[in-house]
Structure formats: structure tokens, C-alpha cells
Amino acid sequence: MKTKNTLFILSLIITISIRADEGMWLPQLLNSMNIKDMKKNGLKLTAEQIYSVNKSSMKDAIVQFGGGCTAEIVSNQGLMITNHHCGYSAIAYHSTVQKDYLTNGFWAMNKSEEVYTPNLVATIINRIEDVTAKVLKGVTPTLTEIKKDSITKANIKQIEKESMAGTHYESFVRPFFYGNEYYLFVVETFKDVRMVGAPPSAIGKFGGETDNWMWPRHNADFSVFRIYANKDNKPAEYSQDNVPYTPKHVVPISLKGYNEGDFTMVYGFPGRTQEYLSSFAVDMIMTESDPLKVSLREKRLNIMSEDMRKNDTIRLAYANKYAGVANYYKKWMGEMLGLKKYDAVTKKQLFEKQFANVINADPIMKGKYENIFPQLQKLYSDYKILNKQVDYYNECLMAIDAFNYSRNYSTLFNELKKKQKGLTNTFDKTLEEYKKLGFFKNYNKTTDIKICEAMLSEYIKGVPSGNRPIVLDSFIIANNSDAKKITDFLYSNTSFVDKAKTELMLNDFEKYANLYERDPIYYIANAIVKHYAASVFPQFQYDEREITETQKLYLQAQREIFKDKKFYPDANSTLRVAYGKVNSYKPKDGVEYKHYTTLDGILEKEIVGDEEFSVPSKLKELFKSKDYGRYANKDGKLPVAFTASNHTTGGNSGSPVFNSKGELIGTNFDRNWEGTMSDIMYNPNQCRNIVLDVRYTLFIIDKFAGAGYLLNEMKLVK
Ligand code: ARG
Ligand code: GLU
Questions:
Q1: Which ligand 1 atom is nearest residue 650's CA?
Q2: Which CATH architecture has domain 21-121+191-272+577-717?
């Protein structure tokens, strides 16, 4: 009786915490898991229309863009829409002070003006398959973890190999639910991706870092690219002979808009969530890891922005770097505030206590699962210490560009040694790759010197002598813990941050290798890397594996106890569907936000001369003449962005947001400040995704950029 009662309470907690809108679902399982609920909420499509292996379906128009973002195909000539911030590094790559596409925007006025971007890839999913049984074949409970691991890895390799054999497809297997399930992904990766258009940053990034992760929002965060394929419509390296890709599905675009409460669906590649963590983990993130990373990044950002403001060359060189550092700096800040406000640790603790009661009341359950929480508690008390070391490594030591850059040379030095012993013939090829690195295009020595001094001084304060790499520690002690003195010495004696010297070295590497291997910055950076590789990362990874094993058991137990509950796996950069509705929210007592913004708000936010909030005069003219045409909202205004309750995360940037008929109503680009903790805990009252209204995208392409010819390729639905 007691068990039943606790179980009842527990399931109440679960139903309270997991409600409609939460979840990133596997598209191949919609039919068995979600479709009823989706239809109840307004969806007018079948599961087959969303995902099908045999017929063309919406999934054929969903692209993983550049590895970390999503894009949607909107024409039968491979035209894609993604975010401005997803295309940012490509736009920056093609920009110079003379042809500054970041500032002025870029528009190819015909296909011959579309520009190829090296290393930018577009991946489309061919099929997804459950391979759990095959991956776990031969894995028995009595084997050691190491043995289990090696069997699993071998099985995965075999499955991947077989699935690709004789085809041009690529494939990979990923674990889900901490290894309770495995899925195979067979994909096509297109390597000829060309930039078609991007608005000026004053439009695409309007509001800059100030507005980032915030609502209300007013930027047209989009850019346009095109996939090219060979004559057989297959992926190919860049070539003049390539032709626009013909997709199996084209996303239709709706001009009808939406109302609050309307069904929405996001289809894309969310990167990473950790929804099933224990209270110990959440506590570590909220009280230690997030605050440390935030404070270190803040120092680095202040230095960069000061130099960027003073000098245009530095501004362009650091634009992408800065945006990248700033983005997660702010995200972690929002996350720790949100977790605190939602009382996440207490909620997890309460759940764990009651869950343990249920387990302990049943002898069989108890036998299998009673160690879960004590084990996690113990693991995290060790892991926490290493995690801090790793945070210092990534956010402090490797935040120094010269360290992070020069350490890469260890591979080349080693290759040379092997070559001299006659053990390798790949040295020349590797050397050629180093010549192409392009580090100096985005580097400014004086900025890096300031960062080095600041980071070393944080490191000296934060990491006790016994935890430092010996070489670094003795150097610090010899210099009286004076970060400035150390920095001055390093940068006045190094050759690695000097473009001419680096070129000299690379042009006759065999002659200079000995000399450069003793370079002080290389020497220190290499010693740091070696120390971490020998004394920190092995234990760190070992702990992570133990945590994963325990989490795997924890999820197995949850799925056993809550038989009727639908579980969704954490995001892992694989294709997912999230559904919810157009939805406003109340951020705090006394404040209510509307679910959409308009062009009026851009003029309201304008600050003349401010880098983040200046409004291009052409946009002001369009506002004055109110010439919005078919892009206007019912209220006569020009819609810009809206909020919805779809569960999304990093990687969902650029994801299509569909209405109930599978028509595009917008492009996902952010989350709200109060909801950034949704990677760890989803609060349905506070968590919103932020979407660029596709009518604003079309308006900018058509009326602002004068590239309306692109719309002729699209399927517009009135
Ligand atoms: N916060 C959004 C995302 O996580 C946008 C980031 C790019 N924009 C920026 N201002 N840094 O990617
Ligand atoms: N801007 C994010 C991205 O680049 C999406 C926002 C989020 O993290 O939800 O994927």
C-alpha cells in the first residue's frame, strides 16, 4: 500500500514536470509515440508525411548545416534558409575591410555570383534504424565495463561499415538514453555549399549581444545558402560543373501568419541536453561550473570588445570569435539564474527521495537499483574537482590563443621525428595542412597578450600550486606569481604569434624544428596539454563513463517504474521533432509579454550611432512608407519574431518552424532568458523558443535587398 501511494505521488510529480510541449522526439517513432497527441493539439499531417524511409517526406528537406546548426530547403534548386548567426563564419570568411559583407550584407544576384565556402557542409538524413540489439550483441551483464565497451565499439564499427558498403552514403551509430538504445543514421553529406545572401548585421544581428537570449526580439536572424551536387544529384567536392541540388521535398512557405495557441512544430538537430541528471549534477552546474565559466569569459570578452571598438581590422578579425564566446557566456548566466529561480536542485532531490522509496519497497527493484543515488553522490564528489580543472583548462588556459594555437604543433614535431626515423611518409602532407591553417587572419597579438595576462592571473588565483602542471607551476613560482611578468617574458621570446616567423619556420621546417620546439609558448602549452592528458583527462573520462553507466541504470529504472510515461532521449545532435504552440509568457510578477514583435519595435529600439541598435536608413524608409505588401500582419504591421513553446536547444538554430499543415511560418533562432535552463530542466510556464517570422525574412529579401527573384523559386502559400 505504501509503495502504491508513493508511486502515485511520484507519478504526479512526473506528470507535473513532464507536460505537453516538453520533449525532443525521434521522428521515426512519432507514429507509435506522439502522433495522437500531436493531432489532438492541431497537427493535420500523418507521421509518414513527417518521416518516411520509402517515400519522400518532410525530413528530406531538413539539413544539418555546418555541423552545428539546422537549415531547411525551400526550393527545388537546393536553396536553404538558416540563421544569420549560423552563416556568420561563412559571411566573415568572405568579408574584408573593402568588401565588408558582415556590415553591408551580401546578395548574389544570379547563380554565378553565389560563393563557395570551403569546409562548409550540408548533411541530409537518408534513414534512421534501431540497432540496439545488434550493438549489444555479445554484451552480457557479468562482463567488465571495459570488455562491454570494446564489444559495443566493435559492433558499432561493423554496423557502420555494412550500412555504407557500396554506396556514397556515410553513417554513424549514436547511443540514446545513456546507452539503453542505439540508432544508426545513414546520411548524405554535401560538400559544395554556396553563400547566396545575408542581410547586414544591423538587421541580422540587430540588438547584438544585448538582446541575445532575450525576448522581445527584433533581428532578422537568417541567411541563405544553396547546396550544389554533381550531375547525378550526388554529393561532390566543389566544382564549376556542379549543379543546384534537387531535393526530395521542398518546404512550402506560409504567408498566412498564426494566432496565439496555434500548433507549431520544430524539426532539426538539437545538440545537447541533460534532462535526466541527478540533483548532485545540477547542483554542481548551478553553483560551481556555470559561475566559474561565466566569470572567466567575462574577463576575456571585456578585453576583446575594448580592442574591437578601437580598430576595424580587429573588429572583423574577432567578430566571430567574440560572438561565440559571448553566446555561451550569457547562456550559462541565464541558466544558473533560471535553475535557482525554479528551485531545480530541491525539485530533483524531492523526486530522488521518493524514487528511492519506491525502489526500496520492492525487493527485486532494490536488488537492481538501490545503489543508484549513493553511487551518483559519490561519483560527483570526485568528479566535481576534476570538472573544475577541466573548466580552467578550457576557459582559462586554452582561452589564450597563442597557447591553443601553438600546442597544435606537437603533431608536426612528432611527425618530423617519425620521418627522420623512416617511420612515416605523411609528413609532407601534414606540413602542407599547417601552411593552410589561417590562424593569423583572426589574430591580434596585443589583444592576446592582454587576455594571457588576465587568464594567467585568474589561474594563479584559482588553481592551487599542487594542481598545476609542474612546468607551469615552477614558472609561476619563479616569477613570484606575477602574471604580467610571465606574459611579457612569453610574448617577447616567442615566434609562434608572429606571422612572418611562422612562415619562415614552415618553409624550412626541418631546419628550424629544433629551435621552435624550445619556443617558450610552445613549450609551456605543450607541457600543459601533456599534464592534462596524463593526470586529468584519463580520470575525468573514467568518471564520466561511470556516471554514464549509473545514469543508464537510473533511466532503465525510471522506464521500468513509469511504464505508461513517454520518455524522450536527451539531444545528441541527431534529428528531432519538438511540438508545442505559439505561446506568450509572463517573465516575472507584474509583467506579461506578447507572443510577437513588429517592425515598430525596431524603430523604438533604435540608438543612432550605436553598433548594436542602429537601423539602416533603407529600412527606416520602408517603415515610413508602410509598404509591407503581402508580408503585413492582420494588424497592418510588419511581423518580425514570435515565441512558441517548443523544446529546443543549441543546434536548433535555423530549424524550420511549421504550422499544422507542415508549412514554414518561421526559422528558430533563440530561446528566452527565463527559459535557458531548459537544457537541464524544462519549465512549461517559462521556456520559450524564439522564432524569426518568415514574412520578415521574405520582406527583407524582397523589399530591402532587392533579391526578390529568389522568391520565384519558393513555394509560397497564401
Ligand atoms: N543565442 C543564440 C544561439 O544560441 C544566438 C547566438 C548568436 N548571436 C549572438 N548574438 N551571439 O545560438
Ligand atoms: N541560437 C541557438 C543555436 O545556435 C538556438 C538557441 C538555443 O540554444 O535554443 O542553435
A1: 4
A2: Beta Barrel (2.40)
